[in-house]
Amino acid sequence: MTLALEPIADPSAPLARRNPVAKLAAALLFSLPLISTVDPFAPAVALVLELALLPLFGVRFGVLLRRAAPLLLAAAGVLVAMTLFAADRSGTLYFSLGPFDVTSGVVATAAGLILRIFAVALPGIIVFATTDPTDLADALVQNAKAPARFAIGALAAFRLLPLLGQEWRALTLARRARGVDAGRNPAAKLRLFVSTAFALLVGALRRGVRLAVAMDARGFDSGIPRTYARRQHFTGADTALVVTAVIASATILTLSVLLGFFRPIVG
Amino acid sequence: MSEVRFSGFGWRHAGRRAWAVRGLDLHVRHGERVLLLGPSGAGKSTLLAALAGLLPDDSGEAEGVIEIDGLEPAKARERTGVVFQDPQTQLVMARSGDDVAFGLENRGVPAGEIWPRVSDVLDRVGFPYPINRSTAALSGGEAQRLALAGVLALRPGLLLLDEPTANLDPPGATLIREAVGQAIGPETTMIIVEHRVAEALPLVDRVVVLEPGGGVRADGAPEVIFAAYGDRLAADGVWVPGFSFPAVRATTRPTDHLVRAEHVAVRGRLRPVSIAVGDSEVLAVTGPNGAGKSTLALLLGGLLAPDSGRIEAFGDKRPPHRWRATTLTQRIGSVFQNPEHQFVTGRVADELALGPRRIGRSPAETRRIVDDLLERLRLTKLAGANPYTLSGGEARRLSVATALATAPRLLVLDEPTFGQDRRTWLELITLLAELRDAGHGILAVTHDEAFVRTLADRAIGLGEPDPEPLPRRVRP
Q1: Do A97 and A122 have their domain in common?
Q2: pLDDT per residue over B284-309, tens digit each?
Q3: A67 shares its domain with A169
Q4: For B393-411, what is each residue's pLDDT tens digit?
Q5: DSSP 8-state secondary structure symbol assigned to residue B472
Q6: pLDDT of the residue at B156
Q7: For chain A, what is the domain count?
Q8: Does residue A125 sit in the same domain as residue A189?
Q9: Residue A5 domain-assigned?
Q10: Are A74 and A51 in a shared domain?
Q11: Residue-wise over B64-99: b if at least 16 C-beta within 10 A, else e?
Q12: DSSP assignment, residue B78?
């Protein structure tokens, strides 16, 4: 089990260098308003914009594609669900799968939903691909005034994640050595999986407690105001990034309304 | 520089009937270096936790007084620093330098002073990498050095070391001892708990032996203590320097191979090696970290498939890693380095019954096997206990017992004596010698030279791993 969470972008790219909090805020402020409409136009424009900005973040297209691969699965799920359950089956009939009519209406709704998944998720993927977790925690504490207890605590827990993979392998081998395997029986496989996962959880908790004690012993969260060894600065350029994201999102939605594509998600 | 005073101190963990420590009177003066000894269960670690201010009031019951420079430990936390056993759960940050800076940030040290102090302390402990080295890429000994640096950066008046080398191989342990020796100035008072007495002795000028059940049994200069109490301490399980064991030799000769591996290799972990284990013999596999010893144990234990080469065992046409688990446990028993990885159930007795039940023994037979093993490995009193709550020695005995429950003829053990006190060590040697004489074949991966000297009939050394070029640390 490898966790593909380390930054994988060129750190000197103009937008990758921006303050992590600014990047995160920009991503949220850009993508969340897009949820308000179910038309395919707004997410399509957003997606074009996101892909156009990719070089400024120093993320290569292939890398992004690999990170976004799980989204393809979600997209396939949407396609199947819409074919089976879409209420609106108006428009031209393309073909029928047994009792299910696939019409232009169905295709348009499915396309809208799939575009939305990508348009909303990509900014998040780009932010995490270009941000070091330590920098994010620092910026959250210094610029967003998040409690250090939460941000640094989460960061420390995050460091233990890769160990879970090794632990899982060790637990699996140990079970086999003890005469426990599932063979081809799916019920036994599930039971084995659950018991291994439980052992992993117990181990993780024990380790978490030990880490918390060690952090305590080094004066973490002792009431003394912390100082910052690594400064994170929130500059004019960072503000500009956030403001631009809001303007871009508003513009896309306005265009969608003006051109008559807009279909609010409620009502 | 700090001074420690216990008067009538005692602590009982919540939910326990027995006191972990009781009636302790002790005075540690400025700048002293004290080795704290005592059989397991004498409350050594509890004492250190109490000194570090890490025993919250609601986690147990206290009596008597502890003072550090006249303050109670919770108020003296800024004067104390503590290094624990497991380096993996002491490092907080992803980059080495940030980790040392972590404690300084917590103490509110001005930002401008932090990096010079980080750099200085990393030099003192001999940390060989740049400050942006990933903490995940460090070996155990290096990580523990870094943890030590993180504590020393805070300039504690009182340094507490709780078995800092217990989780490390000998080279890692040496790294830590050197770092402690060179990095701690005369202004620091030090209290260390350590099983490996001979190795800790050069670092201390006073030995205090705790009496299980309460109080101090002996206190004084190391030479005096060991001359007067050496044999009693050794009998209690303390590794007293100068006490060695006569070798235990096999009474019969191997007649046949149980397992034979030819040119087996695993990409990136083990270079091709050929090895065979016979019945009635103990074969030790030694070698530096990274040579693939544990990988070899997994291969011969039927838990891992080789990338190349072949393994043949018990006259079976299929290699061990293709066997069903129930077949495997009746032929080869594996004992892992970390006993906790091996436990599957919530009770010691269930843990022993699991294997026999899986291979279809009747309930009566299972009960007989379980009772017999509990008796043999002195676990009868713990039959109802949760395996995860056992002490290190008990957990090790249980992990060996679980492997024996299905009566395999070949035993594969990974570092069986790791971190054990002298008493458990001796029990293991005796048990393994008995098994050998009963016709079992035993393969043990080990760093423990005394183990090889005392028990092994043959030893095979795996070669050095491919060297990795080490980058030199640059200052920011």
Answers
A1: yes
A2: 999 877 788 889 999 999 999 999 99
A3: no
A4: 788 889 999 999 999 999 9
A5: P
A6: 92
A7: 2
A8: no
A9: no
A10: yes
A11: eebbbbeeebeebbbbbbbbbbbbbbbbbbbbbbbb
A12: G
Provide the shortest C-alpha distance from residue A172 to chain B (in Å). Answer: 9
List CB contacts of B268: < 8 A, sequence separation 6 or more.
Answer: none
Q: How far apart are CA B169 and CA B139, in angstroms?
A: 10
Nearest to B334 among A177, A211, A231 (CB): A177
Do residues A127 and A152 both lie within one domain? Answer: no
Q: What is the residue range of A183's domain? A: 146-217
What's the alpha-carbon Rg for chain B, to the nearest Å? 24
Rg (CA), chain A: 23
The beta strand positions in B188-288, using DSSP E, are 189-193, 206-210, 216-220, 257-266, 270-278, 281-286
Q: How many CB pairs under 8 A join A and B?
A: 155
- Beta-carbon contacts of A140 under 8 Å, excluding residues fewer than 6 positions away, are A20, A21, A146, A151
A181 → closest Cβ in B93, B324, B341: B324
In a domain, A107, yes or no: yes
Q: Which pLDDT belongs to residue B246?
A: 82
pLDDT tens for A155-211 read: 998 888 878 888 898 889 988 998 888 878 888 889 889 988 988 998 888 888 889
Q: Under a CB-based contact definition with an 8 Å cutoff, are residues A253 and A37 in contact? A: yes
Residue in B198, B212, B305, B189 with CA at minimum distance from that of residue B242: B198
Of residues A133, A195, A210, nearest to B94 (C-beta) = A133
Please report whether residue A250 resides in a domain: yes
Residue B19 φ/ψ region, left for φ over 0, alpha for ψ in the -120 to 50 degree band, beta for the rest: beta
Q: Do B106 and A219 touch (CB under 8 A)?
A: yes
Residue A203, classified by CB atoms within 10 Å of its CB into exposed (0-12), middle (13-18) or buried (19+), is: buried
Instruction: Say yes or no for a CB contact (<8 Å) between B324 and A231.
Output: no
- B103 CB neighbours in chain A (<8 A) are 218-219
Answer whether residue B475 shows pLDDT above 60: no
CA distance B406 to chain A (A): 9
- pLDDT tens per residue across span A115-163: 989 999 999 999 988 898 999 999 999 999 999 989 999 999 888 887 8
CB contact under 8 A, B82 and A217: yes
Average pLDDT over residues B121-134: 91
Distance CA B204, CA B224 (A): 13
Q: What is the pTM of this model?
A: 0.81
Give the closest-approach CA distance of B325 to chain A in angstroms: 4
Task: Name which of A203, A210, A219 is nearest B77 (Cβ-Cβ).
Answer: A219
* Domain identity same for A240 and A181: no
Does some domain include residue A78?
yes
Answer whether B78 sits within 8 Å of A181, measured CB to CB. Answer: no
